[in-house]
Amino acid sequence: MLALAFVLAACTDADKPNTAVSEQEAAGKPGTLQQETPLAAIIRSRGVQPINAASPEGLLPQIARELAKTDPERRYRGITYNYTNGNALARDWIVQTPNAWGQEAKAIKPDDSLPRRLRELIGSARLSVDIAMLKPAPDGLFLDAIKAGIANLASSGRPVKIRLLIGTYPLGPDIDPKGVLEILAQEARAQPRSRLSFHVAAMRSCLGGEKCDSYTWNHAKFVAVDGERLFMGGHNFWAQDYFGKQPVHDLSLFMFGPAATDATGFANALWGFVCSRDRRPDGNGKAQVASLLPGGEIGKECPMRLQLPPSRPRDQVRILSVARLGAGITEDFANQNDLARDLLLGAATRSIFISQQDLGFTLGRTDPLWPESTLERLADFLIADKGDVFIVLSNPNARAPVGESYSNGVALETVGKKIRAVVLGRGKGLNEETAGALLCRRLHLAPLRFGPDASWPENKAFANHTKFFMVDERAFYIGSDNFYPVNLQEFGMMIEDERASLQLKREYWEPLWRWSGKAAISGAGVPSCVFQTKTARR
């Protein structure tokens, strides 16, 4: 779910910010001269080049070099991009909920092991705990886990600094940082040995003001400990969505090593915004802070940065941390995540696996917005006719048990039509029939399924909140960034490791496609392919 949907749903077309539209729309309006998109201008002006998939160097070091071209003064290295080799994945590093492939929907029970692992992660801290999330504040089992981890830290007497940053969208009740802090620190304040420092912030960096014509707030989801250990991915900390009768599907990971420091660097950038601006709502954002130092009372001291020692190498897993700062924090290009995604997809030679909530965005609009440059990379791969694209999306009208939306209302057939249009626009010599035949062979589109059922009991649609893609079974992305075009702050990781890729394929992708593929509307083996033309059907 992305709360921006509710904001845009309330806007007229004239109200929509021009940085929250597709690259195609941003390039110019009908009847006007086409202008370069910001990303296209960066690629041209900085000389960004495609990746050589055959290079023995690997994919991620090449992508890191191309990203560095967009940051000539290296201001954002360690914030929106950074390549490290020396990382390790936890023994049970894959977190997929619910992990219940092949079961009947009525038999699926939510898995509540994640809160326990988060409690242990937080309780292991010796220097710092950084939590980033989207509003509302943590609740239920997630809140209990965070409080229990903090209580363990308080009784240990270790001087740990705890920062919780919550991205706030401008609808519904606002977050009260002081109230959240009081709940989190309740047991610590009663513990005489506690040496904990607490800092809680609610922020959004841009709300369509005169100097900042977009909507931007934090959408990243992670828990980073000591700059060495990290939980990160798509999971919000909302127990009601993951442990109810119809749990939302999501994917995250646990890792150790130098790349964990990048989450703290990203958080430092957001806290820098929080701490450096007036705490008054205006058109360029909003920030509120509550702090509690050892032995003191709740105030507003703001920790602009966490300074942590270098993380020691753990193993040989190669990770490229990628993030975006959206709008309102800097006027520099600091959305390296977007470019990294297209470079990795553009390097595919055999296969692309994608699991997302949506590719299109329509709420509040009559025409969908699309990630145009990303769809172009998929189209180019399909036109080469050397491999297959598999895509699993959320079901239309999917909602959480308490009503949060996990669907942008874009039908799977509409997604197919859009991809076909991009293929036709880029494929020389392709017509409707040849393009349709190509897509019926190579593009596999399906809605989320867990097992033999098409929905939860009472006809409730399955919700997919995963943000995942994999290229050639050798490199993959897990994080907070959706494919559909919005302008939020995001954090994720690209991992290039054969053993990890094969494990993720075996434990996550294969069962996901085994069941979702039964409802596919295109691809080899589908009885009635949505791209089949009338001529081909004769």
Overview of the molecule:
- There is one protein chain.
- Helices cover 31% and strands 21% of the residues.
- It is of the alpha+beta class and 538 residues long.
- It contains 15 helices and 16 strands.
- It has one domain (35-537): Endonuclease, Chain A.
- It has a 16-stranded mixed beta sheet that branches.
- Strand 4 and strand 5 form a beta hairpin.
- Residues 1-34 have low confidence and may be disordered.
- It starts with a helix and ends with a helix.
What distance separates the N and C termini? 42 Å
Taking all residues together, what is the mean pLDDT? 90
Question: How many β-strands, per DSSP?
Answer: 16
Strand portion, in percent?
A: 15-25%
The total domain count is 1
Task: Output the radius of gyration.
Answer: 23 Å
Label the CATH architecture: 2-Layer Sandwich
Which CATH first-tier class would you pick?
Alpha Beta
The helix/strand class is alpha+beta
CATH topology: Endonuclease, Chain A
How is the main sheet built?
Answer: 16 strands, mixed
Could you say which overall geometry the principal axes of the C-alpha atoms support?
Answer: globular
Let me know the CATH homologous superfamily.
Endonuclease Chain A
**Helical content (DSSP H or I, runs of 4+):** 25-40%
SS element count, helices: 15
Q: Low-confidence parts, pLDDT < 50 over ≥5 residues?
A: 1-34
